[in-house]
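Human: We require from you a standard protein entry with sequence in single-letter code and fold as tokens, and nothing else.

Assistant:
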Amino acid sequence: MNLKIISRIALCAVAVTTLVHAADYTKPNIKPGLWEVTVTPKMSGEMPIPDDQLAKMTPDQRAKVEAMVKGAGSKPHVYKDCMTPEKIAKGFEMERGADEQSCKRNIISSTASELTLHDECDHTNRKTVSDVHFTFKGGTQLDGKLHIVTTASGKSMIVDSTVVGKFVNASCGAVKDAEPVN
């Protein structure tokens, strides 16, 4: 699983896609401006890479990919994200590329202080199921948990992440969207 996807889910976990009716979604109590979000993933299982693709890799390439996934999957990743009033009002809609067209979102619960989502994506060669729960505190803090299972070629990789976010400043400065700090 691409760590950029995981971080984007975390940063936009309160995202409500066009598949969800506005009545199902309650805008979270978060302050617009610059936010710092730390995502700490824990990965387990097998890399969901099809056997034919693994067979094309040299042993060195395969070892590098495995090391990269293991290394990226254990250390915290910090991001700055500009939460504009427009982004909050739109429900933090994520850009929907061709890969996300196969995704369906179910809002389990939505209040100003909590959000629970269940997403299922059936891609051509893999399936991803995500469960997300976030708590918003005082408009300036968020805590969350992500549970993502990606399955392909009979192999499943599980990513369990904790997410901690805090409001930094009313001005986003040069930050336009989500940007990695480390």
The first strand starts at residue 33 and ends at 45. DSSP finds four helices and eight strands in the chain.
